[in-house]
Please model this.
Amino acid sequence: MDRHVYLDHSATTPVAPEVLEAMTPYHRDLFGNASSLHEHGRKARQALDHSRQSIAEHLGTKPEEIVFTSGATEANNLAIIGTAFASSQHPHIVTTSIEHHAVLHAVRWLEEQGYPVSYVHPDASGKIDPEAVREVLRDDTALVSVMAGNNEVGTTQPLAELGTLCREHGVLLHSDAVQAFGKMELPTEHIDLLSASAHKLHGPKGVGLLYVRKGVKLAPLFHGGGHENGRRSGTENIPGIVGFAKATEIAFSERHEHRERWTSFRDRMIESLEGIRGTRLNGHRTDCLPHIVNFSFEAVEGESLVLKLDEAGIAVSTGSACSSPELEPSHVLVAIGVPPAMVHGSLRISMGRETVTDEIDALLDALPRAVEALRAYSPFRVGDTDVH
Ligand SMILES: Cc1ncc(COP(=O)(O)O)c(C=O)c1O
Model:
């Protein structure tokens, strides 16, 4: 096949044509500032209100509970640092060892400022046990932050159970739902704060949101004109927000169809690739996001495999896009106990709206050959380590 095969949708997605079309007028003619009183401003305000209303309906929240941000990194920082700063004491924070760095590094920064933090570890499939969260809760815990679905291995978490537990203890629950938003049901009624990002669902880059349940106290990180109900100052990115709303609408209307297709591709990849010697599926087999699948190959370097597949016109990744340039092993794979000899040989395949059978065929044709070719040069032999 001559077209490039893109299977790295967890890193980012192409903007959908309908999204681009919805956004374009807001770059050109409808360029107003939503705070201006004149017609240009009023039209921008209408678009902002309409987008907020539409996204809130899809999420099952109230429009005034949605705070638009520059992306999920900002939304996660606002949720975590904002709730910590809203408290007069230095409250205790709970998170997990498999969060995205946009959560982990925000929490670590708070830890450096003197906030006590507990990290809950997953089981071998990447699942967080609510009982393990219960065990670390303290009288001064303010926030528990657990992602909805992992960006590297796809494992999903029991958010409804975690939400019930948090509410029993008067603790807020934040969830980084970047990879899950628009792909699976999210029990927002059990969640107090939730982050999402447009560019993971065929929307534009540089726009995201934080859902903040009514009544949750949050200190703003940005100070200025008091936009977003004083929670996030800065002129609103109207074209981006309109694009985010359109991408959300499309993702929700197509999600059952995509879920079915991705699940069948995922099952096919697992069945086929598990046939390669020294291969391990990382993450939960069934409690997982439908569009992500992650494997480790013994005696293979993940980076070399990505480059070899790139030569064949196939784009995939090793772990998360943000940690790939570092040669550090993925903190997620380490946390779920992937053996050291396999932790560097991981590959994440992630599908999107436009992923078709031909692309999965191309991957399943090229990948086993790439693994064999790289193993031929490897100083290690398959079977040198005890894997499974
Ligand atoms: C789970 C998760 N959280 C947060 C982010 C950061 O999102 P953004 O690129 O919108 O800042 C990402 C992006 O890779 C992600 O996968």
